[in-house]
Design goal:
Blueprint: H1 4-10, E1 17-23, E2 29-37, E3 40-46, H2 49-61, E4 78-82, E5 89-94, E6 97-103, E7 112-116, E8 118-124, E9 127-133, E10 141-144, E11 150-151, E12 154-155, H3 170-182, E13 185-186, H4 199-209, E14 220-224, H5 225-228
Parallel strand pairs: 6-13
Antiparallel strand pairs: 1-2, 2-3, 4-5, 5-8, 6-7, 8-9, 9-10, 10-14, 11-12
């Protein structure tokens, strides 16, 4: 049975253009295009912005990831955005708020709402990392996220079924990642214990008693907010 890669290799690709990068001692670059006709390279001319845009669009249309082309109003809680070619990185935060959480039966924790600390999210292409902070807004000091399905800040995205937005606004991208995290079933501890205490016992108590997750049990992260904003 042939797969997508086999079919791709069977296709015939005809060279249309070559891009040449010139650099100088002042760390400046000049991009030149040379059109190819019947296998012969033509004269060089400056690479236009329109040509660059068309190349980026072609790459984005052939990708299944949230990549380039973000637009729209920049949300107030967005801290950093890098949507350069080949990379999509967003960093944003939520203040402390109630969240509904879902758990596997093996944990013995009921589904329910819990007041969680403020959270900093960092989405990088197809991966997501989460951190928490104390207070209403993030400062440089961050703490390990007190949740299951998180290994040293990296989130294991498993059971959530969320459709990727076609209209790549910043807000829709943020909502997509948050749904991927919160709509998943929390199931296992990955790596070391993220808090000073029993995560299952404390989480269950917070849901059943309607109390906020205690920030006194949080463990300081080895990363700071400034580390994420670059």
């Amino acid at each position: 049975m042939s797969n997508g890669l086999t079919n791709l290799l069977k296709e015939e690709y005809i060279p249309e253009m070559a891009i040449i990068v010139y650099s100088c001692s002042e760390n400046r670059v000049y991009l030149e295009r040379r059109d190819i006709t019947d296998g012969k390279m033509g004269a060089g001319k400056p690479l236009s912005k329109e040509c660059i845009t068309s190349i980026i669009k072609a790459i984005a249309e052939d990708s299944d990831e949230l990549e380039v082309g973000f637009h729209g109003i920049i949300p107030r809680n967005l801290l950093f955005a890098d949507t350069t070619t080949g990379r999509t990185r967003l960093v944003w935060y939520n203040p402390p708020m109630k969240r509904r959480m879902f758990f596997t039966k093996s944990l013995g924790i009921p589904e329910g709402e819990i007041m969680v600390p403020g959270i900093v999210y960092a989405a990088d292409n197809n991966s997501l990392s989460v951190y928490v902070f104390k207070g209403k807004e993030p400062k440089d000091k961050l703490f390990q996220a007190p949740f299951f399905n998180v290994n040293n800040h990296a989130v294991c995205l498993g059971s959530a079924k969320v459709t990727k937005p076609k209209n790549l606004t910043y807000q829709e991208a943020i909502e997509y990642w948050e749904k991927m995290f919160w709509n998943s079933e929390f199931s296992h501890l990955y790596g070391s214990n993220p808090i000073n205490g029993n995560l299952a016992v404390i989480t269950k108590s917070c849901i059943e008693d309607g109390i906020p997750f205690p920030t006194k049990v949080l463990i300081k992260s080895n990363r700071k907010l400034t580390d994420l904003l670059k």
